[in-house]
Amino acid sequence: MSLQIEKLTPHCGAMVDGIDLSRTPDAATVRALEGALAEHGVLFFRDQVMTPDQHKAFGRCFGELHLHPAFPDILEGHPEIMVIRADANSKRIAGEEWHSDVSCDAEPPLGTILHLQEVPPVGGDTLFAGMYAAYETLSPPLRTMLEGMTAIHDGENAYRGRYGHGDAPGAVYPKSEHPVVVTHPVSGRRALYVNRIFTTRIVQLSRRESDGLLALLFAHIETPEFQCRFRWRPGSVAFWDNRCVQHHALWDYFPQRRYGLRVTIRGQKPVF
Questions:
Q1: Residue 193: other Cβ atoms inside 10 A
Q2: Is 52 strand, coil or helix?
Q3: Torsion angles phi and psi, residue 234, rounded to 5
Q4: Contacts (Cβ under 8 Å, ≥6 apart) of 88
Q5: Which range of residues forms the domain containing residue 142?
Q6: How many domains is the chain partitioned into structurally?
Q7: Does residue 271 belong to any structural domain of this protein?
């Protein structure tokens, strides 16, 4: 395979050509994709055809696959594959706010690979934002203040009641404490690591101080200059790095249908 990688924006996103994801890549190609993912945060592929088993095989090139702690729509016979769908019967969709996937886990996912088979004729784009830039553009005094701070990421805040089964007696969701600023294990660069869906409190601050600082950081994360916007087509794949990007799925296509499959790769405990 001969990869061609084209950077899309200064801070986030690259288009990848010259690869068929239905075929398990060799070790050199996997290393090249790992490096590109760490550099660009999200990789996009067009015109891909994969069976569920091929989708999982591609994901496993980068690590063990992650099982979601709450999502109810799982492909039959494939517990590692989430079904991502929205249509005229949907009340809401996954990912309508800026977030990093399942950051409430003690070892949050390394990355996520979404393959869409059906897309609306217009709309349904996904936004991605680079957290390297979000950290690096903070003022030096604020970066210094954030060093050593940790935050609570609470699955209860995100999942309770969300999927129609979240209020079942005894349901328990992950809750973890992670650094506010993390170091990417491949690139060595630092990234901001708080998000609207899961992050509820900065541990070292009072509630009032925490709420104020998180509001500032959440607004900063959404700066347009950090972002890229991906327009899906049938057969498109996005592979994003949860350690250094956040994403926001737009639901501007109701009642049109959008359908695809997603695998998520297990990660490791974030460190400063």
A1: 29
A2: helix
A3: -55, 130
A4: 254, 255, 257
A5: 4-265
A6: 1
A7: no
Query: Which residue, 203, 48, 192, 44, is CA-closest to 125?
Result: 44
Residues taking part in catalysis: 99, 101, 247, 262
- Alpha-carbon distance of 41 to 60, in angstroms, equals 18
- Check: CB of residue 229 under 8 Å from CB of residue 43: no
Q: Which two tokens stand for residue 240?
A: 């994003």
Q: Give the pTM.
A: 0.95
CA distances from 140 to 105, 137, 144, 245 (A): 30, 9, 6, 21
Q: What are 136's two structure tokens? A: 């690096």
Residue 270 lies in a domain: no
Q: What is the pLDDT of residues 53-110, one digit of tens each?
A: 999 999 999 999 999 998 889 999 999 999 999 999 998 787 789 999 999 999 999 9
Token pair for residue 52?
């569920």
